[in-house]
Amino acid sequence: MKALVCVKRVIDYNVKPRVKADGSGVDLANVKMSMNPFDEIAVEEAIRLKEKGVVSEIVAVSVGVAKSQETLRTALAMGADRAVLVQVEDGTEVEPLAVAKIIKGIADEEQPALIITGKQAIDDDSNQVGQMVAALLGRPQGTFANEVSVEGDAVVVKREIDGGLQTVKLALPAVVTTDLRLNEPRYASLPNIMKAKSKPLATKSPADYGVDIAPRLKTLKVSEPPVRSAGIKVPDVDTLVAKLKEMGVA
């Protein structure tokens, strides 16, 4: 069984983003980039399924600039077998629907039984690509996965929902999006990092899949959140209650 894993290059989660002075977007100059944390979990889950003998091949896929090769090499070092980069020009923002259409094109070529991706990317928090891929392919989907197991020709996904956990059984081929508590991604060892340099990495373009990536949305302004105001001290509970009522929260 082949698994297709989608990864994205984003600002490292330890870095505090800075907004450009003109408010046109986030400043990416000299900022550390890394693999989207939810996508790391997706890669780890595919590797664990391979270690169980369920998955025979893992193909890592990314849509992004040339430097996204570094992100794909990380996935290869973790344990993916080969990678595909659909390269776009620097500064190009590809919207979720365009990404989903490209992944559909790759899936049509590769015919994976399982597509695994993070539930969302931490740069735009769209939480759309996995669901759109499932819709475009007409495949069942298990989103916000907390636990994944393959049983014959089906995949059982325990999902995180508002009321707790929901378990669904999906006929393969299917699409799964991963949540934080699914697993703990491994660190790539030095020998595997060296081996990853020789693993196949194909470079494609959106045109190869007949996808127009021209933006349909326009960002008007990006701004910092308001600075949190300082708190005040009150002498007793009665004053606290009065203050809360004054603020309209009690």
UniProtKB/TrEMBL annotation:
Keyword field: Electron transport, Transport
Pfam families assigned to the protein according to its UniProt record, in alphabetical order: ETF
Cross-referenced InterPro entries: ET-Flavoprotein_bsu_CS (IPR000049), ETF_a/b_N (IPR014730), ETF_b (IPR012255), ETF_beta_N (IPR033948), Rossmann-like_a/b/a_fold (IPR014729)
A GO molecular function held by the record: electron transfer activity
Electron transfer flavoprotein alpha/beta-subunit N-terminal domain location: 23-213
SUPFAM superfamilies the record matches: Adenine nucleotide alpha hydrolases-like
GO biological-process terms attached to the record: carboxylic acid catabolic process
Cofactor(s) needed: AMP
Domain of life assignment: Bacteria
Signal peptide feature range: none
PANTHER family, per database record: ELECTRON TRANSFER FLAVOPROTEIN BETA-SUBUNIT, ELECTRON TRANSFER FLAVOPROTEIN SUBUNIT BETA
Subunit structure: Heterodimer of an alpha and a beta subunit.
Job description of the protein: The electron transfer flavoprotein serves as a specific electron acceptor for other dehydrogenases. It transfers the electrons to the main respiratory chain via ETF-ubiquinone oxidoreductase (ETF dehydrogenase).
Family: Belongs to the ETF beta-subunit/FixA family.
Protein name per its UniProtKB record: Electron transfer flavoprotein subunit beta
Natural source organism: Novosphingobium subterraneum
